[in-house]
Amino acid sequence: MRVAIFGTGYVGLVTGTCLAEVGHDVVCVDIDQAKVDGLGRGIIPIYEPGLEPMVKANHASGRLAFTTEAAKAIDHGEVIFIAVGTPPDEDGSADLQYVLAVARTIGRHLARPTVVVNKSTVPVGTADKVHAAIAEELAARGQEIAFDVVSNPEFLKEGDAVADCMRPDRIVIGAKNAQAVTVLRRLYAPFNRNRDRVVEMDVRSAELTKYAANAMLATKISFMNEIANIAERVGADIEQVRQGIGSDPRIGWHFIYPGAGYGGSCFPKDVQALARTAAQHGHQPQLLNAVEAVNAAQKGHLFELIQRHYDRGEDEGVRGKTFAVWGLAFKPNTDDMREAPSRRVLAQLWEAGAKVQVFDPEAMDEARRVFGERDDLVFCDSAFAALHEADALVVVTEWKQFRSPDFARMREALGDAVVFDGRNLYDPAEIEAAGLAYYGIGRGRSVHA
């Protein structure tokens, strides 16, 4: 099938590449000429395992093309995806200006019946707005062309997006017209060979499904962070608690790892947007507001542990110290620093008068863009290079390569011999046996403190 995708960001590029991989003829559209030119040369603007070779192979085969010419892409597409950003507006609600701009562009150039697919994460009712925008442009041209607007939310995890797209757990399709569902079933047939993964529903239910899924997962994370904070105060070990509740099949193991708070492009903005949608319809979503509040507070917890260790009042114990920071991305296998806990930790350390030496396997370029050059920030080329002449280590992202360091070497390198583990990567007994003071999330104060 011939497919047009508006947006070459995380969702658009991964979706377009995977559709091309299974044989569809895909044209991706973006307004950024430099980005389009770079993609044509095999320069991938995001880090996602497995994506780069797939983009290059499908582009070379002619199944995946990139352009800034919207009219050309619309003329190409039997199915047209809208996969542009929906950033938080000032009040936390989703900003639909880019989605609706694409809808108007489609209306100005549409020449034959098509199915328009909302792939962007959008509030309930957006499909109606997209339909109205396209219809308005068609009316201005004096054209009557049949089209459907379908909600087909994405469920891609950063770091596993290619695998999630190629082997989806479910394919949610929200539509009013059965014929539109038939078109989408044909498009997704290569992903459905083993079993039918399509979940059909009405459009508004499909729109709400994406927000509900992310809000549920964010709730599990915030709940575990709340329990971790209780564990810390009562003298329990949250890792043992996690083992105890994770074995309960009603709860399970996924998303019950306490840490420094969730970040990225999905959970923060989706929880906020769903809460604003509820408020706009006269309902105060107390649980969603609490989830967001817990997460906001949790991002400051690592610094609270640092202050606890260097407790001299007014941050005097932190001032002048040098902290090695391992991990900048909000999660492993991505270079995404949007809403990353590292940003809060670094800001708090700088405000307290400390210097930081940072390393992340993939997010260094993004960190340079975010923070720029400053005297109290040193970019290092390896994890142990960041420890050189540092007083303490702060672990913020759970990259696999951080999981089994040489603790004896770490003890020799760190002036104050203390580790603040924001992801509970290490066994406290093992790290303390090496002569290091240890602070985790919900694991109590180090016996060396």
Main β-sheet, spatial strand arrangement: 3-2-1-4-5-6
| Measured distance between first and last alpha carbons | 63 Å
Mean pLDDT: 94
The tally of beta strands, per DSSP, is 14
Q: Report the principal-axis shape.
A: elongated
* Unreliable sequence segments: none
The biggest sheet, with number of strands, parallel, antiparallel or mixed sense and barrel status, is: 6 strands, parallel
Radius of gyration, in Å, reads 24 Å
Strand content: 5-15%
Helix content class: 40-55%
Kindly name the structural category. Answer: alpha/beta
TL;DR of this structure?
The chain is built from 18 helices and 14 strands. The protein is α/β, with parallel strands linked by helices. Helix 1 (10-21) packs across helix 3 (51-61), helix 5 (97-109) packs parallel to helix 6 (126-140) and helix 9 packs across helix 12 (286-298).
Descriptive account of the structure:
By secondary structure, this protein is an alpha/beta fold. The chain has helices at 10-21, 33-40, 51-61, 70-76, 97-109, 126-140, 161-166, 178-188, 203-234, 238-246, 267-280, 286-298, 301-309, 341-351, 364-371, 383-387, 407-413, 428-433, and strands spanning 2-6, 25-29, 64-67, 79-82, 114-118, 147-151, 171-174, 198-201, 322-326, 355-359, 377-379, 392-395, 418-421, 437-439. The model has no long low-confidence stretch (mean pLDDT 94).
